[in-house]
């Protein structure tokens, strides 16, 4: 952007001042209730309960509405045999409950319940618990299934790839159309190729997601898509209906693109409505569709996707224009304004969505969702830095020279020749004493950097630097490289976003930890250690709760030689089951200020495990001790 007198404007620093605090706010959050991904709040019978008489029903209560599968409940008797239960359905309290009828005459012993449902945000969740009738017993066969149905790795990988391809293709499709509609560049054949390729990619990704919907929900392999009953149930559920609506919009968008290409017309309001409809299908099928402030969250999610598409997809279209055509300064200014508006929307909606999903500062380091969010934030910072570099290279080429009123001097002809060579237009005598502002190269969408340097006074009058490989062609190549970097980093940001949308939000993870029923029987192990240095003795106290098959919480506190709590730079714990040849499984401990812990340690098999505790007291001093722990 420029001032009225042709000098570079000062909005670059102002934009940085605006984006800086907003990016910092991205990390802020507060506590609250309810978020995406269903969380088991309660079960009847309760986990670990010992009942005097056999129950007639099993009832699960979740934090949000859930969809049920044909195989939502698997109940194993004390001998590990699967029981025949009734058809699963919602309980009398509403869609956030799941209920199944148990067979009559249950014998004494411990029963294992493995469950799997589909959250309102389209992602399947599963878990397991036990209850006993009369007295508690041990069932190793039941323990093997305590973690519930597993996810097939092939189905999960294909589903993740298809979701990423859908994100990438819709961004390029919408962004290219927005770039052509707003900037009105000269006809660039590569723009049409980008539109067609992204449309076909979006169509293919949507079809793959539809086909994989049933096996993704049930946790089966890709061949599970041929199960007619499962496929019919999946496509009539809300996630399936959302995908069918997306497919219809994709087909409508294809017809619209074909019509515009044949008539050589600009995209209009119909295209904008189709873009908004496509964005709404993502909002209706992801985290925003369930939990806290659903209407606001869905609106924010749709705007976030549209802004991403206009900015990153527009960058891809800009790169195509840089290779095949010159752009006027007016087109550059239009795209610069639209891009800045897109970045503003991205930051505002990103702050809200991060607060909604993260929940608090602790989740940033203690949860997978928080760590992925931190990676995405760092990638966005790199993206903005690349954008600033692009603007600098643009400024070096697009700054028009201000002519003196002394006529057409040789120095002025040299400047006009340089600008004309950079943008690919003929350099004839000027119609006025100033260089037209419309003869400039495309600018990146980025935040403006420092003002460009004026042409060197040492250049011989009338010499064409571009003809001899002077600085202008080099600047143009550098601009293309920097824009290409922006596109590549943007694609990486979309990849992290894809992983975020399938990861349990930090707020929901914290809620799951607080909603888990308290169970007695935690395992507490004291592990003395001595690294052989003064003050290098102490005891690590490790608590595993409830010390049973499945998810456990683990906490470790280190006490110094004087018996007080001691701080160590690193504490690692791993588990190995020699009898089953399992492990070592890393406990994934994180420093929580005064103790080390992890709320989701999964130990899949009952029996005696070897727990290896490694304590590092300095950069060079550490010791490892092994203790046996029993998992019921």
Give the SSE map:
Elements: H1 11-25, E1 40-44, E2 49-51, E3 57-62, E4 66-76, E5 89-91, E6 94-101, E7 109-119, E8 124-133, H2 140-143, H3 153-183, H4 189-218, H5 228-236, H6 238-263, H7 269-284, H8 294-324, H9 329-358, H10 362-366, H11 368-398, H12 410-423, H13 471-501, H14 506-515, E9 523-530, E10 537-545, E11 550-559, E12 570-577, E13 582-586, E14 590-591, E15 596-603, E16 607-616, E17 622-631
Parallel strand pairs: 2-8
Antiparallel strand pairs: 1-3, 3-6, 4-7, 5-6, 7-8, 9-10, 10-11, 11-15, 12-13, 12-16, 14-15, 16-17
Helix pairs in contact: 1-9, 3-4, 3-7, 3-8, 3-13, 4-5, 4-6, 4-8, 6-7, 7-8, 8-9, 8-13, 9-11, 11-13
Describe it for me?
The chain contains 14 helices and 17 strands. With 632 residues, the protein is of the alpha+beta class. The chain is flat, with a radius of gyration of 31 Å. Residues 1-36, 140-149, 397-409, 418-471 and 516-520 have low confidence and may be disordered.
Quickly list its features.
five-stranded antiparallel beta sheet; 17 strands; 632 residues; alpha+beta; four-stranded antiparallel beta sheet; single chain
Give a short summary of the structure.
By secondary structure, this protein is α+β, with helices and mostly antiparallel strands.
Contiguous helical run count:
14
Helical content (DSSP H or I, runs of 4+): 40-55%
Structural class: alpha+beta
Rg estimate, integer Å? 31 Å
Q: Main sheet?
A: 5 strands, antiparallel
Mean residue pLDDT: 74
């Amino acid at each position: 952007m420029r001032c009225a007198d042709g000098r570079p404007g000062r909005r670059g620093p102002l934009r940085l001042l605006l984006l800086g605090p907003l990016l910092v706010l991205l990390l802020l959050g507060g506590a609250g209730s309810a978020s995406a991904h269903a969380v088991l709040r309660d079960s009847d019978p309760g986990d670990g309960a010992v009942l005097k008489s056999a129950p007639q029903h099993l009832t699960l209560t979740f934090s949000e509405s859930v969809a049920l599968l044909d195989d939502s409940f698997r109940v194993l008797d004390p001998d590990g045999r699967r029981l025949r239960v009734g058809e699963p359905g919602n309980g009398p309290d509403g869609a956030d409950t799941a209920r199944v009828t148990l067979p009559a005459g249950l014998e004494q012993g411990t029963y294992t319940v493995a469950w799997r449902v589909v959250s309102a945000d389209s992602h399947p969740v599963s878990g397991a618990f036990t209850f006993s009738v009369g007295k508690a017993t041990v069932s190793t066969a039941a323990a093997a299934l305590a973690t519930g149905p597993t996810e097939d790795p092939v189905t999960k990988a294909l589903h993740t790839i298809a979701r990423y391809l859908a994100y990438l293709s819709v961004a390029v499709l919408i962004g290219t159309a927005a770039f052509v509609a707003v900037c009105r560049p000269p006809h660039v054949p590569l723009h049409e190729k980008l539109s067609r390729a992204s449309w076909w990619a979006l169509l293919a990704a949507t079809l793959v997601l539809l086909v994989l919907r049933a096996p993704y929900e049930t946790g089966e392999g890709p061949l599970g898509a041929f199960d007619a009953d499962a496929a019919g149930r999946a496509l009539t559920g809300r996630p399936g209906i959302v995908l069918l609506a997306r497919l219809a919009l994709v087909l409508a968008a294809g017809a619209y693109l074909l019509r515009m290409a044949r008539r050589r017309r600009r995209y209009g309001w119909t295209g904008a409505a189709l873009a908004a409809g496509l964005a709404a299908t993502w909002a209706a099928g992801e985290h925003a569709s369930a939990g806290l402030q659903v209407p606001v969250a869905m609106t924010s999610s749709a705007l976030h996707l549209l802004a991403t598409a206009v900015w990153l997809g527009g960058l891809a279209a800009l790169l195509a224009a840089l290779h095949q055509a010159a752009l006027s300064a007016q087109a550059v200014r239009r795209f610069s304004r639209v891009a800045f508006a897109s970045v503003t929307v991205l930051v505002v909606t990103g702050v809200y969505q991060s607060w909604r999903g993260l929940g608090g500062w602790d989740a940033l380091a203690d949860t997978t969702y928080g760590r992925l969010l931190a990676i995405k934030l760092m990638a966005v910072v790199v993206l903005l830095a690349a954008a600033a570099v692009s603007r600098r290279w643009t400024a070096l080429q697009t700054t028009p020279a201000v002519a003196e009123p002394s006529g057409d001097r040789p120095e002025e002809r040299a400047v006009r020749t340089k600008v004309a060579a950079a943008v690919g237009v003929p350099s004839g005598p000027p119609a006025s004493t100033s260089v037209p502002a419309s003869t400039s190269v495309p600018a990146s969408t980025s935040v403006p950097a420092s003002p460009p340097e004026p042409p060197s006074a040492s250049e011989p009058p009338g010499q064409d630097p571009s003809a001899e490989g002077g600085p202008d062609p080099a600047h143009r190549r550098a601009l293309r490289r920097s824009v290409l970097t922006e596109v590549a980093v943007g694609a990486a940001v979309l990849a992290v976003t894809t992983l975020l949308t399938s990861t349990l939000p930090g707020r929901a993870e914290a809620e799951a930890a607080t909603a888990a029923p308290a169970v007695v029987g935690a395992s507490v192990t004291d592990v003395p250690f001595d690294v052989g240095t003064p003050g290098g003795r102490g005891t690590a106290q490790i608590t595993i709760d409830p010390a049973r098959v499945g998810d456990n919480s683990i906490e470790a506190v280190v006490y110094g030689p004087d018996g007080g709590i001691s701080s160590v730079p690193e504490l690692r714990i791993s588990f190995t089951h020699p009898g089953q040849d399992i492990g070592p499984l890393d406990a994934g401990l994180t420093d929580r200020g005064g103790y080390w812990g992890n709320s989701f340690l999964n130990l899949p098999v009952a029996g005696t495990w070897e727990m290896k505790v490694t304590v590092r007291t300095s950069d060079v001093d550490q010791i490892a001790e092994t203790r046996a722990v029993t998992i019921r």
